[in-house]
Amino acid sequence: MCARSEAVELEVLGAEGSEARVPPRPLRLSLLELLGKLVRRDQPAPSHRRAKHNHRFRTFVSCENERRIKANNREYNAQFRYANNYIKTSKYSIITFLPLNLLEQFQRLANFYFLCLLVLQLIPAISSLTPITTAIPLIGVLALTAVKDAYDDFQRHQNDSQVNHRRAKTLRNGKLVEEKWASVQVGDVIRLENDQFVAADILLLSSSEPNGLCYIETAELDGETNLKCRQCLLETAAMGQDDAQLGAFDGEIVCETPNNLLNKFEGTLSWRNQHFSLDNDKILLRGCVLRNTSWCYGVVVFAGKDTKLMQNSGKTKFKRTSIDRLLNFLIIGIVFFLLSMCVFCTVACGVWEWLVGRYFQVYLPWDTLVPADPTWGAVIIALLVFFSYAIVMNTVVPISLYVSVEVIRFAQSFLINWDEKMYYEKTGTAAKARTTTLNEELGQIQYIFSDKTGTLTQNIMTFNKCSIAGVCYGDVVDETTGETLEINESSEPLDFSFNPEYEPEFKFFDPTLLDAVKRGDSHVHDFFRLLALCHTVMPDQKNGRLEYQAQSPDESALVSAARNFGFVFRERSPNSITIEVMGNTEVYELLCILDFNNVRKRMSVILRKDGEIRLYTKGADNVIYERLKATKGDVKSKTQEHLNKFAGEGLRTLALAWRPLEERGFAEWKRRHHAAALALHDRDEQLDAIYEEIETDLLLLGVTAIEDKLQDGVPETIANLSMAGIKIWVLTGDKQETAINIGYSCQLLTDDMAEVFVVDGASYDDVNKQLAKCRDSIRVVNTFMPHGPRSSDAKRDEEPNGAVSGRGANVKLNAPAVSVVTFRWEHNSLAHSNEYVSGGAHTSEPHEHANDDSNGFAIVVNGHSLVHCLHPKLEEKFSEVVLHCRSVICCRVTPLQKAMVVELIKKSRKAVTLAIGDGANDVSMIKAAHIGVGISGQEGMQAVLASDYSIAQFRFLQRLLLVHGRWSYYRMCKFLRYFFYKNFAFTVCHFWFAFFCGFSAQTVFDEMFISVYNLFYTSLPVLALGVFEQDVSDATSLQFPKLYAPGHTSQLFNKTEFIKSTLHGCFTSLVLFLIPYGTYNDGLAADGRVLSDHMLLGSVVATILIIDNTTQIALDTTYWTVFNHVTIWGSLVSYFVLDYFYNYAIGGPYVGSLTVALTQPTFWFTAVLTMIILMVPVVSWRLASARARGTLAERLRLRQRWRGAAPAPRTPSARRARRSVRSGYAFAHQEGFGRLITSGKIMRRIPHADAAFSALASLPGKFHARPSSPPPEPKAPTQNLDTVDL
User: Fold this and answer.
1) C-beta separation of 92 from 100 below 8 A
2) What is this enzyme's EC (predicted)?
């Protein structure tokens, strides 16, 4: 702030010398204070305020870093010209729509290019075409775009009007007046009632709930539907709903300037000579809805465009596909090609006019603008012809291309939305394409960056196992054999019906734990008593049943487990917690809550009962172990073994501990704690230091193990995507061990890998050394074992420093296998294979190995190590290592680091990236990637709202990419190849005709034909091709993921394919023109009529061109639908219908030309001969290519045609590769709720809605070896020669 709110407070406190003592201030604050004095102007003080206080703040020229507001004082606030509450998100008005929209559209290069052509066509001296040839397509494109923009803006106008006309109750002179939202201003005090939207960002003054509490729903801000709690100052809460007191409220607020930080607010309230600190817990933001609160009052702090909602409604980063970028480059190339043809024709025209034309001025007189001198006359004519040919051949730059591309993408988006196989019945959620511009990019994904919790896992926590006093509970053991039985759907859960408060959905299978509870085992009772007491859960009664509202699913699962075992958390007050232990009520005095945060990784409560004070703690196992009291015995070591065991099963662990406290020592600690809680500076740091003092000498009770299950189909999806050549990275906030376990569970990590590296260095030098070792190991393996692993028993011991963890490479010296892709005997080295076309070009990335299950590296990078890996000096080395790895797991990373990793790959690899997540912490990653996919999950809708595509389950990602993405890319590439072919075949005919018309810019075709060729005659067939075409079925696309490979290297459309299409088009145009020209030159009909007229030739060439286009697209179509038949054959018929209608009904200049041509055998002979010359090379080339180097899709299609449907890939023996890694702390929890509980204020009731506070705080741990005893898990299908028996 300009003088910082603290400095302002101290200044005013100093003015009231007797009321408060000013502490020493730093020089910086003193200088800022002096600056503040310089911009204040003294004013007479009103009688009703303290003179000195008002004297200093009466008129203040606000600086850029703070905002000053006086409640109920519009005159004072008006001087700062704060934004009013009127919202305007629309771009146009009725008056400005046409000029602004046209200005926007002509900023697009293609539109501006055609506008310039239209202007040139209006000049008779240089135009041989009527302006209508360019005006019709240009106006059509502009009109379609304008209608779309107008509709979108009309929707925005309606939304703005609806919002601005909402009613708000505002205090005016002590009375409530109903006004429009648009009339509310900064400083007004407004009243909100239950279920009303908050009109502006307001400081909460009072509410109907005890102690000024209220509840809000923030769905419009962050997508969360669970309730949030806000609380006003007790001093303002005393005003209640007394309109007179609230109308006389004259507090002054000094706060931050408008910003887009939803979870941050800093300010100070000065009122009645007191100063109060303001934070985000006292602010209600615009867009929130008041829930379960009868009424509340607040003073407007930010209004209109200054509100945090509007500050966050900025434009999302515009994303363009690689095909879009290529098209822009190609269009520039086409323009240069057009200019080169124009220059050639210009020079040729000048030469012809100088050598020949000047002698024929009697028959071809020069224009009056042309000088009579032969040389200068030829030069001027040639210059004019340059512009004439630019007009004639402008169709080589297709304006309809952009419209067609958008139509195809729009239709493809609907196909994604309508796919019933991506519909999740459990939640009623369908896949949704939230953008229509990125569909084909889904078929070119090379890297997937995925969140873990809620994306790969279900984020539904269940109490699975525990260890108490060194005894492990949760496994079901066969009493006769002593073997551990696998728990499945047929296993019988324990009966908890003895407990009236049990939950029927809770399941536990080990009877020994329930027996220990019933027989009164003291350790077990202390364990569950801690779970029932140490938390910030709120109890609620719904329909006579006890329910819990927790900040995180982890905490809810633990309190629920204690409840079912007979330790029921009943209620809490500001100073007490009541639980019921096996039917007996126990009341504990709550002395303090030591709140959770991401740094502490633990939370504690201090309780008193029967004169005994105890501290209960739960948190990360490594954090708790560091604070345990040194004791003899093997409880710690046994518990450590159990931690390793739980990690092997992918469970999330918490350690539980306690310690007794002395009354005197606690009283002294409490005094210092109270002082730290009131500190104005570094409050959090002081509190953490105070907490550290008391959370020592703990006694270990045990550990809990919570299961966060994988979503359905995750291993199979990851295996198929990997087989498609996509590298998958997991970027998670969870700790290292938990992430590694999930990696093995979902087959990102396997025993078959050559190496799994772990980079966890704490310093730059450590990370540098670890990366160097990783790089050296990769080089060794690639040098001496180039064809993958050799021995299933070859194991590497983990290095002492944990830098490179050898994971037992299974190295096999097998004979070269038959590639399922190329169907040839070949090695695994990517340098000798091609993933799509046998014998094709080698990849330019020899270091990337084939995605074979028996090969590859993986790397696990810790968050604090990633900071150094992203350092500019280590970035290149880090990139070199990770690009050799098939799988990468980055754990304990922040949202910003997620985005930085994505940006690193985008920058270093120029690869197409996709990010997928389900929570707010994934938003930055989703926005940074080329394509963002949001999952509708347990963590809210933030990721979905920021995404380009949304799905309900991770398993749907393989269908989105391997089916819809691949089809979209395949269709778009085929569309573009054909589109450029037909345009060059059409346009270059004018160039060949130039040699026979003296380069005079005379056109071959009728002007109307030129205008509607791309709009009507050839548009619908190519659109049907782009929307419905498919080379193989969706089932085949999923069975053979290698079909996805061409998109990685842009094999289906690139500069080479573009040149092939244009050369093919130029060859077609040459044949189309020369054969009819040769046939009809000096031609005579059987009855002696002359056939060698210009209009007849133009009609013949145009007709054969349409026939050729129809035949070509029929050859290109492999998947025929009714739409393809109607559009292809219908377009051919429509050509003749429209030609006759235009020439006969409207009276076109070419009337009768086509009729004469069709009645002559010469036309049919010419058409057949031309089509044979054009089609035979095309068909021969395709047959030869398919036979010599056919693609996998062609071979599969051929096999299906002759042998029926493709067989389903064989599923190998079920096996799950798992590793011994000790699980650590993985706890989703949010800081701050404990402060609300212990602040001496408590809710009279809990709102009748789900008030779970969900926020992910994924925390770290250590990596240790553990014995592997994994249960079997089905492995994803693999492909071998048997699956494609040709």
Assistant:
1) yes
2) 7.6.2.1
Q: What is the pLDDT of residue 997?
A: 85
Residues in the chain, total = 1286
What distances in angstroms separate CA 512 from CA 481, 494, 700, 1192, one per listed residue? 17, 10, 21, 58
**Residue 481 assigned to a binding site:** no
Q: What is the CA radius of gyration of the chain?
A: 38
- Residue 537 CA to residue 560 CA, distance in Å, equals 10
Instruction: Report the C-alpha gap between 1211 and 1154 in whole angstroms.
Output: 63
Secondary structure element (H or E) that encloses residue 1106, with its range: helix 1094-1116
Burial of 971 (0-12, 13-18, 19+ CB in 10 A): buried
Name the pairing type of β-strands 447-450 and 727-731. Answer: parallel
Helices (H), 88-233: 97-105, 109-121, 132-164, 219-222
For residue 845, give the H/E element and its range. none
- Give me 159's structure tokens: 């939304």
Q: What is the pLDDT of residue 221?
A: 66
Q: Which of 188, 451, 526, 1031 is catalytic?
A: 451
Residue 1097 phi, psi dihedral angles, 5° rounding = -60, -45
Angle at 745 between CA 897 and CA 793, to 5 degrees: 110
The annotation status of 432 as a binding-site residue, yes or no, is no
Q: Is 596 annotated as a binding residue?
A: yes
452 is in an annotated binding site: yes
The CA distance from 892 to 767, in Å, is 16
Q: Encode 360-379 in three state secondary structure.
A: HCCCCCCCCCCCCCHHHHHH
Residue 733, marked binder: yes
Per-residue pLDDT, 1068? 94
993 and 1073 Cβ atoms separated by less than 8 Å: yes
Does the annotation list 732 as a binding residue?
yes
Distance CA 764, CA 110 (A): 50
* Amino acid 612: pLDDT: 92
Burial (Cβ within 10 Å: 0-12, 13-18, ≥19) of residue 340: exposed
Give the distance from CA 563 to its chain's centroid. 39
Amino acid identity of residue 58, one-letter, is R
Task: List the alpha helices (DSSP H) in 910-1042.
Answer: 923-928, 942-946, 956-959, 966-994, 1007-1012, 1019-1028, 1034-1039
Tell me whether residue 840 is annotated as binding.
no
Residue 188, annotated as binding a ligand: no
797 is an active site residue: no
At which residue do the structure tokens 């000048």 appear? 350
pLDDT at 743: 83
Distance, in Å, from the CA atom of 352 to the CA atom of 1112, rounded to the nearest integer, reads 37
pLDDT tens column, 473-506? 998 887 777 788 887 777 888 899 888 989 988 9
- Output the six-digit token pair for 161: 């009007």
How does DSSP assign 654-723, residue by residue? EEEEEEEE-HHHHHHHHHHHHHHHT-SSSHHHHHHHHHHHHS-SBEEEEEEEEEEEEPTTHHHHHHHHHH
Residues of the chain with pLDDT under 70: 1-64, 109, 128-129, 133, 219-227, 312-318, 459, 551-552, 598, 648, 650, 735, 737-738, 784-855, 920-921, 937-942, 1085-1090, 1203-1286
Which positions ≥6 away from 1024 have C-beta within 8 Å? Answer: 1121, 1123, 1124, 1127, 1128
Instruction: Say if residue 921 carries a ligand binding annotation.
Output: yes
Helix (H, G, I), strand (E, B) or coil at 96: coil
* Annotated binding residue 922: yes
Q: Which residue has the tokens 């307001």?
A: 202
Query: Which H or E run includes 1074?
Result: helix 1055-1080
Rounded CA-CA distance 1208/1221 in Å is: 35
| Separation CA 948–CA 913 (nearest Å) | 13
1273 is in an annotated binding site: no
